C-alpha cells in the first residue's frame, strides 16, 4: 500500500487531533468531560453509521438494537470476564447480528431494510425480556471502578478505530464497489459486483461499533434494563447527527455531532419543560435548511468561490 | 438559501443561556432536580415526583426559607427533564454539580435513572436520598455509593407482605389457597414475580395459573380469562401503570370472582380510584400510607391547593418526606454536603410518614408495603414498622 503526500498529511493531522482529544480528562473531569463522552459516543456511532449508509443510501435505524445488545453483553459478563474481553465480544456479537440482519434484508430494496432495522431494536428487546422472564433474572447491575475518564478513552480509541477502518475501506475495492452500488445498484450487479456480499460486509461495521459502544457505556449506566438499553430515540439521534454533518465524507458526521451535542445541551438546560418540542423543531430546521449537511454547504460555498474565480 | 431563522434560534438560545447563568444568586440555596417530564416514566414522575418538589419549595420559601447558620435562605429550584434517558440524567446531574453549582440535588425518579446518577452523586459528594428506587441490592449499592440512601423499601418486602396478607386471610378462613399470579414481562414485574413464587409455595399456596405479558399489551382479556378459568381464590398481578388499569378493567368485564385482587404499581394513584369508583373497593395494591394521620391529611390538602392535583397514596408522601429529611439536615449542619451525609446516617427525622432513620445499609427500615382501596381512599394494610395499618377487607364483586 502506498501513501501519497496528502495521505501522510491527513494521517498525521488525525493522529495529532486524537492526541489532543485524549488530553481532555487532564483539563477537566466534570462537565466538559461528560460532554466529551457524549460527543465521543455519537462520533463513533454516527461515523460508523455513515460508513454504510453514506455510500449505499440505505437508512439503518438499528443502532439502538446493537447498542442494547452491547450493554447486555457487559451487564451479563462483567462478573466473569475482563472488561476488554467484553468489549471485543460485544463487537463480535454485533457483527454477527448485523450479518444475520443483512442476509435477511439487504437483498431487498431500501424501504424494507429501513422498516426491518426499526423493528430490530424492539425484536431484540423482546427476546431478551422473554429470556429474563423465563429464567426469572433480576435486574443487572454493572458496578466497576471504570470512571468517566476511562470510558472516554475507551470511546476515543473506538473512534480512532472507526476512522482508520473507514479510511481503509475508502481505499479498498470494497469501498469502490459500494460507491457504485450507491449510484446504481443494477449497474453494479451487471459489472460483476456481488452487491449483497458487499453490503453485508459493510453493514457489519456499524453493527460491531454500536455494540462495542454499548458495552463501553454500560458501566456508566450502572443499572441495565431493556427499556433504557433499547431506547429507539438513539437510532434517530445518530441519523440526524450524521445527516447534519453529511454522510458523504468520512469526517462529515463528526462535524454534525459536535454542534448537535451543544445544541441539545443548550436546549435541555434552558427549556426544561419544552425540551422534546424544541429538539423536534431543531430537527425540522436542520432537514429544511441543510438538506446535505455541513458537508453539502461547504461544497456549495467552494463551488461558488471557484465559479467566481472563473468569471 | 435563507439561514436567518436558524441564526435567530441560535442567538435566542445564546441569550437565554446567558440570562440563566446570571440568575444564580449567592444568597439562595440552589437545589437541583432532574426527573422525567417526557418519555415512558413521565406519567409516574408527574404524579409522584414533581408536584411534591414544587410543593416543598413553595412551602419552604413561604416560611421565609431554611435557616442556615442563623440566617434565613430561600430555595432556588433548578429543574431539568431527563426524557427518561439515563444519558440525559447523567448530563443533567453533571451540569447541576459543575455549571449550576447546586448546593444539593434531589434524587432522580425510577430505579434505572437513580442508579445511572449514583456514580456522579458519589463523585461530587452529594447525598442521594432515593425514593422510587426499589431494589434488593441496597447493601451492595450502599457499599459502592456511601452517599446513597433508600426510603421506599425492597422488592422482596413488597412481595413477601402480599403473601403475608393473603396468608392471614386464608388462615382466618376467608378464602382458599388457590392463587393466580401474572406479571408484566419487564424489569420490576419480573423481579417481583421471581421473589413471590417461592414465597407463595412456602406459605402453602397453590399457584393454579401463572403467565406473563409484554409491556404495553393492549388486550389483557386472555390473561383475565385464563385466570378465571383456573377458579382462583386470589388474583395477584405484578403490573405496571398501563396494565394495572387494563387488568382491572378486564376483571370488571369478566366479573372475575376472587376474594382478593391485587395489582402492583399505580394502584395507589388517585386516577385509579377516580376511574373505577366503587369497583375499586377492596382492590389491593403496592404501597400505601396512613391516610387518616393528621400529617398526611395536611400534606394532601396542601398538595392539592398548590399543585392542583392529589398526591398518590404511596411514593408522593415518601418523596415529600425525603425533602423534609434534606431540609432538616441542612438546618442542622448547614450547606456542607459531607456534614449533611454524616448527619443523615446518624440522626432520626420527623416526617409526615412518622420518624425515619437510616440503618447501616443506608436503608429506611420502616415503609408501607400493601394498601387497599376502602371507601374511596387507598389505605395501608401492611407495613414494616409503620403505625396506622387498616384491617384488610374481602373483595366483594365489581359493582
From TrEMBL, chain A:
Q: Where exactly are the transmembrane stretches of this chain?
A: 12-27, 33-52, 59-78, 84-104, 111-131, 151-170, 200-222, 277-298
Record localization: Cell membrane
One Pfam family, short name: BPD_transp_2
Gene Ontology molecular-function annotations = branched-chain amino acid transmembrane transporter activity
Question: Is Transmembrane one of the keywords UniProt gives this record?
Answer: yes
UniProt keyword list: Cell membrane, Membrane, Transmembrane, Transmembrane helix
> What name does this protein carry?
ABC-type transport system permease protein II (Probable substrates branched-chain/neutral amino acids) 2
Source organism of the structure: Yoonia vestfoldensis SKA53
UniProtKB/TrEMBL annotation, chain B:
Residue ranges of the Leucine-binding protein domain? Answer: 28-374
Q: Which species does the entry assign this protein to?
A: Yoonia vestfoldensis SKA53
UniProt signal peptide = 1-23
Q: Which residues cross the membrane?
A: none
**The family this protein is said to belong to:** Belongs to the leucine-binding protein family.
| Designated name of the protein | Putative branched-chain amino acid transporter substrate-binding protein
Origin, by domain of life?
Bacteria
Which Pfam families does the record associate with it?
Peripla_BP_6
Swiss-Prot/TrEMBL GO biological process terms: amino acid transport
Q: Which UniProt keywords apply?
A: Amino-acid transport, Signal, Transport
Amino acid at each position: 500500500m502506498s501513501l501519497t503526500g496528502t495521505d501522510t498529511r491527513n494521517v498525521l493531522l488525525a493522529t495529532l487531533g486524537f492526541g489532543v482529544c485524549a488530553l481532555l480528562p487532564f483539563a477537566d473531569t466534570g462537565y466538559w468531560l461528560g460532554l466529551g463522552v457524549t460527543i465521543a459516543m455519537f462520533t463513533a456511532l454516527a461515523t460508523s453509521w455513515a460508513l454504510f449508509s453514506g455510500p449505499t443510501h440505505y437508512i439503518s435505524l438499528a443502532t439502538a438494537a446493537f447498542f442494547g445488545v452491547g450493554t447486555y453483553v457487559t451487564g451479563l459478563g462483567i462478573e466473569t470476564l475482563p472488561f476488554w474481553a467484553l468489549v471485543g465480544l460485544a463487537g463480535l456479537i454485533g457483527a454477527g447480528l448485523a450479518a444475520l440482519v443483512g442476509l435477511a434484508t439487504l437483498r431487498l430494496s431500501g424501504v424494507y431494510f429501513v422498516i426491518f432495522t426499526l423493528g430490530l431494536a424492539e425484536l431484540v428487546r423482546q427476546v431478551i425480556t422473554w429470556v429474563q422472564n423465563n429464567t426469572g433474572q433480576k435486574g443487572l447491575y454493572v458496578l466497576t471502578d471504570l470512571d468517566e475518564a476511562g470510558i472516554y478513552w475507551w470511546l476515543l480509541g473506538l473512534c480512532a478505530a472507526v476512522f482508520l477502518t473507514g479510511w481503509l475501506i475508502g481505499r479498498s475495492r470494497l469501498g469502490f464497489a459500494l460507491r457504485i452500488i450507491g449510484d446504481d445498484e443494477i449497474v453494479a450487479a451487471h459489472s460483476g459486483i456481488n452487491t449483497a456480499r458487499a453490503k453485508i460486509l459493510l453493514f457489519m461495521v456499524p453493527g460491531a461499533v454500536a455494540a462495542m459502544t454499548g458495552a463501553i457505556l454500560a458501566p456508566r449506566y450502572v443499572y441495565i434494563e431493556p427499556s433504557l438499553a433499547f431506547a429507539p430515540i438513539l437510532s434517530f439521534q445518530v441519523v440526524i447527527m450524521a445527516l447534519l454533518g453529511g454522510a458523504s465524507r468520512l469526517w462529515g458526521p463528526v462535524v454534525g455531532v459536535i454542534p448537535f451535542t451543544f445544541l441539545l445541551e443548550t436546549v435541555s438546560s434552558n427549556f426544561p419543560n419544552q425540551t422534546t418540542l424544541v429538539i423536534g423543531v431543531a430537527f425540522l430546521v436542520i432537514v429544511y435548511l441543510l438538506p446535505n449537511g455541513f458537508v453539502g454547504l461547504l461544497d456549495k460555498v467552494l463551488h461558488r468561490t471557484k465559479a467566481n474565480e472563473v468569471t | 438559501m435563507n439561514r436567518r431563522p436558524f441564526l435567530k434560534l441560535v442567538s435566542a438560545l445564546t441569550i437565554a443561556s446567558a440570562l440563566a447563568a446570571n440568575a444564580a444568586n449567592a444568597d439562595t440555596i440552589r437545589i437541583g432536580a432532574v426527573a422525567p417530564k417526557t418519555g415512558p416514566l413521565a406519567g409516574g414522575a408527574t404524579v409522584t415526583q414533581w408536584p411534591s418538589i414544587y410543593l416543598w419549595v413553595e412551602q419552604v420559601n413561604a416560611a421565609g426559607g431554611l435557616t442556615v447558620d442563623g440566617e434565613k435562605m430561600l430555595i432556588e429550584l433548578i429543574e431539568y427533564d431527563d426524557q427518561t434517558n439515563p444519558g440525559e440524567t447523567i448530563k443533567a446531574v453533571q451540569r447541576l454539580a459543575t455549571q449550576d453549582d447546586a448546593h444539593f440535588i434531589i434524587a432522580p425518579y425510577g430505579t434505572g435513572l437513580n442508579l445511572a446518577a449514583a456514580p456522579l452523586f458519589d463523585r461530587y459528594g452529594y447525598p442521594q436520598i432515593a425514593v422510587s428506587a426499589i431494589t434488593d441490592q441496597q447493601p451492595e449499592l450502599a457499599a459502592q455509593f456511601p452517599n446513597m440512601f433508600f426510603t421506599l423499601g425492597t422488592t422482596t418486602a413488597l412481595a413477601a407482605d402480599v403473601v403475608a396478607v393473603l396468608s392471614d386471610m386464608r388462615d382466618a378462613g376467608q378464602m382458599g389457597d388457590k392463587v393466580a399470579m401474572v406479571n408484566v414481562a419487564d424489569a420490576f414485574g419480573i423481579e417481583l414475580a421471581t421473589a413471590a413464587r417461592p414465597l407463595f409455595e412456602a406459605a402453602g399456596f397453590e399457584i393454579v395459573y401463572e403467565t406473563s405479558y409484554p409491556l404495553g399489551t393492549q388486550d389483557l382479556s386472555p390473561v383475565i380469562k385464563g385466570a378465571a378459568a383456573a377458579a382462583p381464590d386470589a388474583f395477584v398481578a405484578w403490573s405496571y401503570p398501563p396494565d394495572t388499569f387494563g387488568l382491572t378493567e378486564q376483571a370488571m368485564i369478566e366479573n372475575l370472582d376472587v376474594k382478593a385482587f391485587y395489582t402492583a404499581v399505580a394502584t395507589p394513584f388517585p386516577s385509579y380510584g377516580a376511574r373505577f369508583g366503587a369497583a375499586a373497593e377492596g382492590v389491593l395494591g403496592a404501597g400505601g400510607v396512613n391516610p387518616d394521620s393528621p400529617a398526611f391529611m395536611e400534606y394532601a390538602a396542601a398538595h392539592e391547593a398548590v399543585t392542583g392535583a392529589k398526591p398518590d397514596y404511596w411514593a408522593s408522601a415518601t418523596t415529600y418526606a425525603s425533602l423534609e429529611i434534606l431540609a432538616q439536615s441542612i438546618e442542622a449542619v448547614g450547606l456542607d454536603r459531607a456534614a449533611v451525609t454524616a448527619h443523615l446516617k446518624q440522626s432520626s427525622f420527623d416526617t409526615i410518614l412518622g420518624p425515619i432513620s437510616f440503618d447501616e445499609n443506608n436503608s429506611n427500615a420502616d415503609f408501607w408495603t400493601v394498601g387497599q382501596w376502602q371507601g374511596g381512599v387507598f389505605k395501608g394494610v401492611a407495613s414494616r414498622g409503620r403505625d396506622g395499618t387498616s384491617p384488610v377487607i374481602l373483595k366483594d364483586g365489581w359493582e
